[in-house]
Specification:
This protein has about 725 residues and is of the alpha+beta class. The protein has 3 domains: about 135-370, P-loop containing nucleotide triphosphate hydrolases (Rossmann fold, 3-Layer(aba) Sandwich); about 390-445, no CATH class; about 470-705, Nucleotidyltransferase, domain 5 (2-Layer Sandwich), CATH 3.30.420. The chain is about 30% helix and about 20% strand. It has an 8-stranded mixed β-sheet with strand order 10-11-14-9-15-18-8-19, with helices on both faces. It has a 7-stranded mixed β-sheet with strand order 23-22-24-29-28-27-30. The chain has a 5-stranded mixed β-sheet with strand order 1-4-5-3-2, with helices on one face. The protein is elongated, with a radius of gyration of 34 Å.
């Protein structure tokens, strides 16, 4: 069974007493509520359910006036024919007062739905639509006619409304699958906002200027044209413009008071609002002020255009000083990393709502949202807009009556299986229809030094929801806080270690002392590799991580052979904490360590603590050929070209034999961060690949015999004084 984790409903998040009291007096205000760390999207003063969508807590309006359609699901309401004949506000004014009175209630109700949203029963369940979502479903016309209700889009619009409500937020960075409807939803929102805003500017950008123009002419303008007269201001210029949609003549505000008084309808003051598109470039919309910027296909900006540079510029168009006055609606699938995907990935990662600065903003200012493909894939959404995740026992009906016989997860698995021998095709499928963010940012296979097919096979296997992996997060510590006694492993969600195997108690903490120096007792079982760091902090507070990997050898002991059992990639507050972490791991497993000695503080720390016996010497040199420092502390340099090549070859060989799909099944390399680092590894720029460095050193440590130099034996011929004869022919002849 598929278990969704896209959102959850938080029960009793707010104390019932507080919730009831504030609802009674309608005290809940639209926007961010710091006291409860929620974003309120209700405009009625009352709240109901609280959704958590990818770590963003959103308070919905209180359930009220739930509409029931005849078929118990969303149904677009037919536009009354008498009103459909009216094209403009001026035409409306020509009608008699009794006609206006008859339709005033209908029009007023539509304005209310637009503002406050709409409740309806969907398969018997009260379901809330934001005002924007309602306008999209009821009044927007897309390429296939009226849009279908989809639960995925409902969650998207809830998240988007929260972005609009939160004064700390610049908008949304939406990572999506192909054909998710984002372009039409964004176009609908442009028209929805522009038709009620005065003196405002709205902009559209895409991966190319031609794409932006096409979105404007084929999506934005048709939605505007098909709006009912009471929502639509009078356009300036052409009915279907190519470059700019201008609302110069103000829309009219419909109120019962104006009808009852028999007065003329009250005009909103000076609308003067425009929507246009720009050519793609770093400085698009530079120097302008925007109410809404639609950023379509932002994951596909290729050189020389750079989405990161553009966002740095356009972000300033959405604010006055520190006050955010506009929002950005950004959405896209991702290209390969070297074709614009890397910049979009950085923007997406910088939009994580769990990582905020002191002003409460994410690094980008945007809020990231990812909706997996199984939520929004055409052909696998039932008549109620709910995804058919699992294969049903009996076929179910889609929104247009088609039978759905298998679940979308099974369909996706079948597609992946069919592409397993075409890695580039598979990567493209993953990017177009991702089930995880890692799928969405999957890179091309031709760029990697190692076998990406096998690496990604292993990554996908590890991420498979049907696969339960035995990886535990935790910490090592000295028993009773007494150094140099016994080390114990404690599972801990805040720990820095990821561990997939722990030796039996009899094999733990095996070491022996020789001449006052500690030596590992389980060297025959495995070894560690380490990429250390020396400095506790750096000026820019970035610096590389310390990295440690443990790998088993083949032995007669009861343990998995050739198995990476430990991953540590972290940078604690001080270097000494890192050193002690590494030392405790080595002592617990009783295994030696091969570390880079270009940053020698770790190795000096081992020696000072009495554990020089744990620090391996470089395996490619005999002891009498080691330098003075190498004999003192051990370790291996990273500068030698031979070492670099041997290191990369060790990882390459391991991947070929032990990673991904094999004849006996999948490999047991469970550390995703390391696999992803291997996928990105660049032998000419190793400084950013901490995990690859330490894992490669672990492989070299466990296979040190491969690198041991052999003695060259020079054999000299010795004359024993014995005469040799050539016996060819009839007589023997002495060989000179």
């Amino acid at each position: 069974m598929y278990n969704q984790n896209l959102y959850k409903i938080l029960d009793n998040y707010i104390k019932p007493k507080i919730l009831k009291r504030n609802n009674r007096y309608k005290k809940w205000e639209y926007g961010y509520n710091e006291d409860h760390d929620i974003i309120i999207i209700s405009k009625t003063g009352e709240i109901g359910e609280i959704y958590e969508i990818q770590n963003l807590k959103i308070a919905l309006p209180k359930e009220e006036r739930v509409h029931k359609f005849e078929n118990d699901r969303w149904t677009k309401t037919e536009y009354p024919k008498p009103l459909s004949r009216i094209k403009t506000v001026f035409h409306w004014r020509e009608y008699p007062e009794d006609f206006k009175e008859k339709w005033f209630g209908y029009i007023d109700e539509e304005f209310k739905k637009r503002e406050e949203g709409f409740w309806f029963y969907n398969k018997g369940k009260p379901t809330y639509l934001t005002g924007t979502h309602y306008m999209y479903l009821q009044w927007s016309k897309i390429d296939v006619g009226p849009p279908d209700f989809r639960e995925a889009n409902r969650l998207f619009f809830l998240f988007w409304e929260a972005c609009k409500a939160d004064t700390r937020c610049y908008g949304i960075c939406y990572l999506k699958n192909r054909r998710s409807g984002f372009s039409f939803m964004a176009s609908g929102e442009v028209i929805n906002l522009a038709t009620i805003s005065s003196d405002s500017r709205y902009g559209v950008l895409s991966k190319t200027g031609q794409d932006a123009k096409k979105m404007f002419t084929d999506k934005v303008v048709p939605i505007s044209v098909n709006y009912p007269f009471f929502f639509k201001p009078i356009q300036d210029g052409m009915d279907r413009p190519k470059t700019e949609l201008a609302y110069r003549v103000p829309a009219s505000k419909f109120t019962r008071r104006s009808i009852e008084a028999g007065s003329e309808m009250i005009d909103l003051e000076g609308l003067d609002t425009t929507i246009d598109w720009k050519n793609t470039g770093d400085n698009s919309y530079d120097g302008e002020k925007l109410k809404l910027l639609v950023h379509d296909e932002s994951g596909k900006w290729e050189r020389p255009n750079n989405i990161l540079n553009n966002w740095r510029v356009t972000k300033t168009t959405l604010r006055l000083g520190s006050r955010i006055i506009g929002k950005c609606m950004m959405g896209s699938t991702s290209n390969a990393l070297d074709k614009g995907g890397r910049n979009f990935k950085k923007l997406y990662d910088d939009s994580d709502v769990t990582k905020r600065n002191a002003n409460g903003q994410t690094r980008s200012g945007l809020y990231s949202l990812f909706i997996p493909m199984e939520w929004n894939y055409e052909g696998y959404i039932d008549a109620y807009g709910i995804p058919v995740f699992d294969t049903p026992k009996q076929s179910v009906k889609g929104p247009h009556g088609a039978d759905i016989k298998i679940g979308v997860v099974e369909y996706w698995d079948n597609e992946v299986e069919g592409l397993k021998d075409d890695q580039d095709g598979l990567n493209e499928f993953y990017r177009q229809f991702p089930r995880t963010t890692k799928h969405a940012f999957r890179d091309e296979s031709k760029e990697s030094l190692f076998n990406l097919t096998k690496i990604y096979q292993q990554i996908d296997y590890n991420e498979d929801i049907k696969n339960s992996l035995s990886v535990t997060k935790g910490s090592f510590m000295w028993e009773n806080s007494e150094q140099d006694t016994r080390v114990v492993f404690v599972p801990n969600k805040q720990g820095r270690f990821f561990v997939s195997w722990v030796p039996g108690e009899s094999l733990q903490n095996r070491r022996f002392i020789k001449n006052g120096v500690n030596y590992p007792g389980n060297e025959h079982m495995g070894a560690f590799g380490c990429d250390p760091y020396d400095i506790s902090g750096t000026v820019d507070k970035r610096g590389s991580n310390g990295s440690l990997h443990g790998l088993t050898k083949f032995s007669m002991e009861n343990h998995p052979a050739n198995h990476f059992f430990l991953e540590y990639i972290a940078r604690p507050q001080t270097a000494e904490i890192f050193f002690e972490d590494v030392l405790m791991a080595c002592v617990f497993y009783g295994m030696p360590i091969l570390a880079e000695n270009n940053k020698p503080r770790l190795l000096y720390y081992f020696k000072r603590r009495g554990y020089r016996g744990f620090a391996m010497n470089r395996p490619d040199k005999r002891r009498n050929k080691l330098s003075v420092t190498e004999r003192e502390i051990g370790g291996i340099p990273n500068s030698s070209e031979d070492i670099k090549q041997a290191h990369a070859a060790a990882i390459e060989t391991y991947i070929e034999h032990y990673v991904g799909l094999k004849e006996t099944g999948y490999g047991d390399m469970y550390f995703q961060r390391t696999l992803e680092d291997w996928a990105r590894f660049n032998i000419n720029n190793r400084t950013t690949h901490d995990a690859s460095i330490s894992s490669g050193l672990a492989l070299m440590a466990c296979n040190k015999h491969r690198y041991t130099p052999t003695k060259t034996i020079i054999r000299e011929s010795v004359d024993l004084g014995i005469t040799r004869y050539d016996n060819k022919g009839y007589t023997s002849k002495i060989i000179s």
